[in-house]
TrEMBL record:
Keyword Glycoprotein in record: no
Protein name: L-fucose:H+ symporter permease
Membrane topology designation: Multi-pass membrane protein
NCBIfam families: fucP (TIGR00885)
Primary residence: membrane
Gene Ontology CC: one annotated term: plasma membrane
Matching InterPro entries: Lfuc_symporter_FucP, MFS, MFS_dom, MFS_trans_sf, MFS_TsgA-like
Organism this protein belongs to: Emticicia agri
Top-level taxon of the source organism: Bacteria
This protein's UniProt keywords: Cell membrane, Membrane, Transmembrane, Transmembrane helix
Amino acid sequence: MASISGNKQNFQTTATQNNYLVPFILVTSLFFLWGFAISMLDVLNKHFQETLNLSISQSTLVQVSTYGAYFFMALPAGLFMKRWGYKKGILAGLLLYSGGALLVYPATQLQSWSFFLIALFVLACGLAFLETAANPYATVLGPSETSEQRLNLAQSFNGLGVIIGPLVGSMLIFSDHTQTVEEGFKSVQLPYLLVGGIVFLVALLFLRTPMPEIQEAGITEEVVEKSGKKLFSHKHFVFGAIAQFLNVGAQGCVWGLFINFAIEAIQVSNIEAAKLLSIGMLIFMIGRFASTFLMRYIKPNVLLGMYSLIIVAILLFASQFKGEAAVYALMAFFFFQSITFPTIFSLGVKDLGSHTKIGSSFIIMGIVGGAVFPPIMGAIADNSSMATSLLLPVAMFAYIAWYGFSGSKVSK
């Protein structure tokens, strides 16, 4: 048996602990795949600002299309998996991911910005399935007392994907000369064709691999009673859903507009700024591994609160100072923000019993914050400066700090 609760076992599995290793490795691969997809958006922002002459707020439609898909698809994904199970949910996600990536080719051939955004939306519908399945799946494939550490370990490989995304963008998408509209669209074809093919092969691998299905089941009267409790009466879950909404919103803001910030602060080229972003993503991955280790000694909720307060200080510094110091400070953001998503997720779904799959869907829906806040930050930057726009995520992480220290406590 496995569980995401601290002392109770709320789940029954069709496999023993010895059968968890290969499924966990495969599930971990999913984190890499969507890390690449999400970090590519940060390159697309600046790329289409130049090739299509878009403003910063207009270019954030790539975030709106991608993160917005989570809002519409996360709950249907949860209902799908409640009916058909995690494995079929993962397969559905991989096929949508692959299909959306392959749709980029006809969209760019037609040089249609709207069609391109639709392709990103389809791709992100697949990401919503994968995150709705993989996050809770990772938490239950092992002992309950290490669920937060296990999810952070799996999410650490997300860091590999987010490093590669900007590097691919700097090599294949950005150019050292001004691109025409046709060249600008065609430059994004190869990366997405490769991704579409690779993801399809991963789907075939999942199809042929036996995966233990996690069955939600109450095993005592106490567990049954807790499972029957209304989902929204779990305050730590409600506060967690809000925290995730703000966290991903802030991530979309900082990640999506980092290249703009670096160019404004130290006047570097697009390619150089993309390389700085890749270094930031490397710092992000290091933060995941290092912080997963720290969770052996510091409670996850306390570490979340501490890191969030540090992020508030970093963003305030970057907003007030100019030059390289501001850029380096913002790069430090990636280290401390590395654990926020998986930790908030694990804390939010803890002790939800039979509501876990639906509860995880609502928390995944919070990813829509990545669609809501970047256009707001972009509008602030268009009318003021990138530095001033950093004050928006400051307020968001102040709430997340409160959630870590207080709001994440499970009420009995």
